[in-house]
Structure formats: structure tokens, C-alpha cells
User: Which sequence fits this backbone?
């Protein structure tokens, strides 16, 4: 539902490194970035969800 609704998904690079995940462990629609990537996007978004 999120992908169909054009929700942007950002996976945290540092958390991925800690747990040993790679981009291949996620669905293709997930962007990978750090806090700066999220904050830049979140500043312009109407709704944000940080999990």
C-alpha cells in the first residue's frame, strides 16, 4: 500500500552496517541514507514516520 501511495522509504545506513544488512536485503523501492538524508527529506514532507 505504501509503494502504491508513493511513500518514500529510507533505510538507515548506520543501522544496516550494525546489523550486517545490505541493499539487497530490502525491497527495491527502499532508498538508503543516513540521518542527513532523512532530515533533508523530512523538512519538506507534510508527514514523517521515524521507526
Assistant:
Amino acid at each position: 500500500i505504501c509503494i502504491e501511495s508513493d511513500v518514500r522509504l529510507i533505510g538507515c545506513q548506520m543501522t544496516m552496517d550494525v546489523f550486517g544488512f545490505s541493499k539487497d536485503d530490502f525491497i527495491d523501492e527502499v532508498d538508503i541514507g543516513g540521518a542527513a538524508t532523512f532530515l533533508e527529506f523530512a523538512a519538506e514532507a507534510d508527514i514523517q514516520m521515524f521507526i
Summary: The chain has two helices and two strands.
